[in-house]
Amino acid sequence: MSDQPHPTSTPPSEQSGAESRSESESGDADDLTHTTDSGDVQMVDVGDKPDSERRAVAAGEIRLQPSTVEAIREDQIGKGDVLATARVGAIQAVKHTWETIPMCHQIPITNVDTDFSLEEDRVALEVAVETTGKTGCEMEALEGVTTGLNVVWDMVKAVEKDADGQYPETGIENVRVRSKEKRRT
C-alpha cells in the first residue's frame, strides 16, 4: 500500500469528516470493500473467487430464571416446545440471512446444525452452518444464534416477566463466532 494519495481522491482539506475518517482508519478509499470510489455502498463482487467448502460455528446464550430453565426442561411452557420452535427459527434465519444483512450474498446452505444446552440459569445455543461457494457463512451462523435465542425469549416471556412486566433477569449474551473454515473444492 502506498502512502501517496489516490490520483482521483479529494485532497484532505476538501474532504468531509466521514471521508477523512474512513480513509485514515483503513488506508486508501480503494481498500474499502463495501463502498465505491464516490462513497456509495456496494456489495463485494465475489464472482471470480473459486468455490470452497466453508463452515462457520457461532454461539450465544440467553440468561433466564432457573425456574424458567426447569420449565423448558420439563416441557411446561404454555406456548409449546421451546427448543423445537427455536431450532426451526434458527434454521429459518440462516436461510434468510441475505435478506436481513444488507451486504450479504445469497449463498447455498448445504447444512445447518443446532445444539442447545440447558444450564442452571441459561440456555446456550451453538449453530454450525456449511456451504459450498465463494464467500463465508459466519453471518448466517450468527443470524441463526441470535434468532434462535430470540425465539426462546419469545416462547418464555410470560414466565420471565416480573410483576411490572419487565425482564430484569433475562438477557442474550456472549454471541460470537467460534470458528470458520475454508477448504478449496
UniProtKB/TrEMBL annotation:
One of its GO terms (biological process) is Mo-molybdopterin cofactor biosynthetic process. InterPro entries: Mo_CF_biosynth-C_arc (IPR023047), MoaC (IPR023045), MoaC_sf (IPR036522), MoCo_biosynth_MoaA/MoaC (IPR050105), Mopterin_CF_biosynth-C_dom (IPR002820). One of its GO terms (molecular function) is cyclic pyranopterin monophosphate synthase activity. Its EC number is 4.6.1.17. Keywords: Lyase, Molybdenum cofactor biosynthesis. Residues 43-182 form the Molybdopterin cofactor biosynthesis C (MoaC) domain. Belongs to the MoaC family. CDD domains: MoaC_A. Residues 1-53 are annotated as: Disordered. It catalyses: (8S)-3',8-cyclo-7,8-dihydroguanosine 5'-triphosphate = cyclic pyranopterin phosphate + diphosphate. The keyword tRNA processing does not apply. It comes from the Archaea. This is Probable cyclic pyranopterin monophosphate synthase. Substrate binds at residues 103-105, 139-140. Homohexamer; trimer of dimers. Coiled coil: none annotated. SUPFAM superfamilies: Molybdenum cofactor biosynthesis protein C, MoaC. NCBIfam families: moaC, PRK12343.1. The active site is at 154. Pathway: Cofactor biosynthesis; molybdopterin biosynthesis. The gene is moaC. It comes from Natronolimnohabitans innermongolicus JCM 12255.
